[in-house]
Amino acid sequence: MIIIRNGTLVLPEGLVRADLAMEGGRIARIAPSVEAHEGDEVHDAAGCWVMPGLIDAHTHLQCWTGIDWTADSFETGTRAAACGGTTTVVDYATADRGVSMPDALAEWHRRADGTCTANYAFHMAIAEWGEGSLEQLDEMFAGGVRTFKTYFAYDHLKLDDAQTLEVLEAVRERGGMLCVHCENGALVNELQRRVLARGVVGPEGHPLSRPAEVEAEAVSRLLYLAHLAGDAPVNVVHLSTELGLAAIREARARGQRNIHVETCPQYLVLDDSRYLEEGEDGFAGAKYVMSPPLRKPSDRRALRRAVLSGEIETIATDHCSFNMKGQKDRGRPDAGGNFTMIPNGGPGIEHRPAVVATTFGDELGPCDLVRLMSENPARVFGMWPRKGRLAEGADADVVVWDPAARWTISAKTQQQAVDYTPYEGFEAHGRAHLVFVNGELVARDGEPTGVMSGSYVAR
């Protein structure tokens, strides 16, 4: 038995001073005092918060883009996640055109099974819809997948509105949910052409080609389609703009209730001035080429307020890491490239908990942090009550968080297998001191123990 003593437990009903015991991959007991016996492993959590393991419900690990593999595999990505306090990730398996959903799911299992430090589940991204798709959906539910993704952008992935409506109806009828990448792809294509025609080829062209209106239009369109589909449950992923937030508020005011909203730390902390960052011979802005792009300070402020008000339910990372050297530098203008050739995505799977806790400071207490990064993701994505809470019988995914820790985020010391971090030099307040996955200690003070106890989470 593993016993955590003297900590402040972050429970659904509030903070409680108590001991917690784990055995057989489950939380065995929560009590004012748990007696230790010979052979038990005891950890002192004095001065720390004892929290349910955090959940990152938006990652892209060991993903092939057609040109590049992401820098992080399931092995390196889940190890980095665990070192930061995240004990479960939900990764986007993708059924590319010409690939069936069952074949895509089998491939993602092949990549992940037996390699993970943190637990893992899968969404299924759908790049084509037609004959046989309904039967494939049924196979996904049988395989523990109940959330799906479609795109309004990227020519090789996007569905049209009629197809999206059919997916929404089919997923709703089966009790699932659709996550949607909300950018108007036709407008992005045209705006990229116009920006390049103006002679803007560096990273600063990326946000110019994907303005806030491109997101807001797609968010609004999605929510009208969801209404037509009988108020089908949707998750607006990586919300980045105040205009997009306004579209969500309008839909909720119309009476839609099945709208879930996710944002990411980068949209709460960084802004579009980063695209003009000096360094890397004028190419440092490539670090922040992700879609949607970083936005204005006013958008950042609006999203922070929406997090505090509860309008945004979950904070995930959209972790999709590419190295600056050998991957993102393919878009260097001095080598004949441009911003459209820079692989889209950035790392964050390791640093989300510390960045969020530090950014909000006293505005979000431990119960709020758990709600945004553990309880709500568990509820929204079908893992509650096994995950997302500390309770007897729940999974033994437990984080002992030291709120007094002070440390600096740096690529030199990170576990992520990528050559930079967008949070370089960030002074973090708080850190995962001990991280348990399925009752096994996998990380201590940001360093892995070498234990890989992650398992597949069928939802």
Task: Provide a descriptive summary of the structure in words.
This is Dihydropyrimidinase. Its cofactor is Zn(2+). By secondary structure, the chain is α/β, with parallel strands linked by helices. It has a domain at 53-360: Metal-dependent hydrolases (TIM Barrel), CATH 3.20.20. 29% of the residues lie in helices and 23% in strands. It has twelve helices and 17 strands. It has helices at 74-84, 101-112, 133-142, 161-173, 185-197, 205-208, 212-228, 242-254, 265-269, 297-309, 352-360, 366-380; strands spanning 2-11, 14-23, 26-31, 41-44, 49-52, 54-59, 86-95, 119-126, 147-151, 177-181, 234-236, 259-263, 314-315, 398-408, 427-437, 440-444, 447-448. Strands 1, 2, 3, 4, 5, 14, 15, 16 and 17 form a nine-stranded mixed beta sheet that branches. Strands 6-7-8-9-10-11-12-13 form an eight-stranded parallel beta sheet. A hairpin with a 2-residue loop joins strand 1 (2-11) and strand 2 (14-23). Helix 4 (161-173) crosses helix 7 and helix 7 (212-228) runs parallel beside helix 8. The model has no long low-confidence stretch (mean pLDDT 97).
